[in-house]
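Re: [ENG-882] Designed sequences occasionally contain unexpected residues at chain ends

Forwarding the minimal case from QA. Structure tokens:
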């Protein structure tokens, strides 16, 4: 009986020793080779965000000594010359001969005597912000891919046929200058053109 118990105890101790030994055995392991992921970043310019404002059909010689019913081609357009999609806007300012913004009254009179053909159509929308009537910012509702351009904000200027001598004298003294400025922002940073319009407005109206 004693031998049997002793034998059981010895077997139990041996089993415990084996279990303990198994716990200290080294396990297999492996380490992978590292992967270096380099990140590069774009800036302003052709490798990143870039845009150009152009007027394909504008000829300054055609804007001199205008008479009633004269039509001058003027078609401000923004092109994406960068590498990423952009949202765009154009600011239009109507200035007098001294490069000062027209007063609200003069602007209303000007718009009665001169027509900006197709103004604000073909994908353009006005940024509804308070300010002078002679300064307006429009944003294009479609993102521009690389190499693409907007539709013109307007395509020509017509001196109204019915203008009187007094009307033409007013325009002559006004000495009109139409100044356009473009801007663009990274397309992927915004959910829509409407969302981007606030940043575009801020860029053009600091």
């Amino acid at each position: 009986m004693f031998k049997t118990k002793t034998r059981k105890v010895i077997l139990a101790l041996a089993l415990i020793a084996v279990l303990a030994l198994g716990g200290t055995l080294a396990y297999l392991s492996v380490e992978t080779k590292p992967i270096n992921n380099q990140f590069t970043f774009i800036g302003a310019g052709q490798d990143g965000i870039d845009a150009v404002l152009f007027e394909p059909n504008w000829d300054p010689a055609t804007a001199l000594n205008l008479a009633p019913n004269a039509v001058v081609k003027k078609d401000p357009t923004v092109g994406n010359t960068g590498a990423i999609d952009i949202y765009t806007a154009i600011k239009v300012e109507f200035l007098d001969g001294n490069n000062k913004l027209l007063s609200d009254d003069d602007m209303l009179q000007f718009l009665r005597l001169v027509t900006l053909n197709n103004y604000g159509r073909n994908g353009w929308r006005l940024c509804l912000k308070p300010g002078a009537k002679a300064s307006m910012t429009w944003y294009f509702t479609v993102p521009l891919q690389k190499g693409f351009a907007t539709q013109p904000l307007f395509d020509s200027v017509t001196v109204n046929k019915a203008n009187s001598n007094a009307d033409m004298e007013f325009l002559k003294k006004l000495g009109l200058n139409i100044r356009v400025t473009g801007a663009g922002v990274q397309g992927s940073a915004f959910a829509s053109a409407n969302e981007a319009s606030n940043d575009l407005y801020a860029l053009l109206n600091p």
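QA comment: On inspection the terminal residues look reasonable. The two ends are 102 Å apart (CA to CA). Proposing we downgrade this to a documentation issue.
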